[in-house]
Design brief:
The complex is a heterodimer of chains A (111) and B (115). Chain A is mostly beta strands. Chain A has no helices and 11 strands. Helix content of chain A is 0%, strand content 54%. In chain A, strands 2, 4, 5, 9, 10 and 11 form a 6-stranded mixed sheet that branches. Chain A has a 5-stranded antiparallel sheet with strand order 1-3-8-7-6, with no helix packed on it. Chain A starts with a strand and ends with a strand. Chain B is mainly β. In chain B, a hairpin with a 2-residue loop joins strand 5 and strand 6. Classes of the chains: A mainly beta (111), B mainly beta (115). Chains A and B meet through strand 4, strand 9 and strand 10 of A and strand 4, strand 5 and strand 10 of B.
């Protein structure tokens, strides 16, 4: 059983704050690490697919880093906005075809 | 933008009944998946499907479950005799290929409630 953990489980921040959360995953048999943004009643939306150690990806105010040797990825949100409120999921892809998900970080941004 | 669509959005069924959850993956995608999330738990892999056959399945995907791609566009998950513990949100996903960099696109889910 692959262990993918996310922390914190939930986070409340004020509009304008920058924030980050962590995904930890097994460091062996690594193929890719996926980040998703999931709003209630909508489809999980792919943010990043990261494959290389040291990778850093950015989409607007959201960025992510990857350390495959130690088995963690950080997701950063700069200047949080209320519309960033969602659950952020990471998913680990090993040699198989499936994604193993973390429990998610639920972000709430107060105006 | 192309999307994965799932129907129905919510299904209520009696224990022991059969249910079929339907998905229309993105049209040029080749790999198809079902995942589920029981309330309060992590999203879990059920099955992957490629070239008209199951390529991988989890321990959850027992003989009560089956998948089919009957007509080249729909991808269905059937639960033969539902149990209370099958109540969950079921997600369909598709990918264009198996490349490391390839995103999986998810549908909005079907909430299955077994009573």
């Amino acid at each position: 059983i692959l262990n993918v953990e996310q922390s914190p489980q939930s986070l409340h921040v004020q509009e304008g704050d920058s924030t980050n959360f962590t995904c930890s995953f097994p460091s062996s048999n690594f193929y890719a690490l996926h980040w998703y943004r999931w709003e209630t009643a909508k489809s999980p939306e792919a943010l990043f697919v990261m494959t290389l150690n040291g990778d850093e990806k950015k989409k607007g105010r959201i960025s992510a880093t990857l350390n495959t040797k130690e088995g963690y990825s950080y997701l950063y949100i700069k200047g949080s906005q209320p519309e960033d409120s969602a659950t952020y999921l990471c998913a680990f892809n090993n040699a198989g075809n499936m994604l193993t998900f973390g429990g998610g970080t639920r972000l709430m941004v107060k105006p | 933008e192309p999307e994965v669509t799932q129907t129905p959005s919510h299904q209520v069924t009696q224990m022991g009944q059969e249910v079929i959850l339907r998905c229309v993956p993105i049209s040029n995608h080749l790999y198809f998946y079902w995942y589920r999330q029981i309330l309060g738990q992590k999203v879990e892999f059920l099955v992957s499907f490629y070239n008209n056959e199951i390529s991988e399945k989890s321990e959850i995907f027992d003989d009560q479950f089956s998948v089919e791609r009957p007509d080249g566009s729909n991808f269905t998950l059937k639960i033969r005799s539902t149990k209370l513990e099958d109540s969950a949100m079921y997600f369909c996903a598709s990918r264009a290929d198996r490349g490391d960099n390839t995103e999986a696109f998810f549908g909005q889910g079907t909430r299955l409630t077994v009573v």
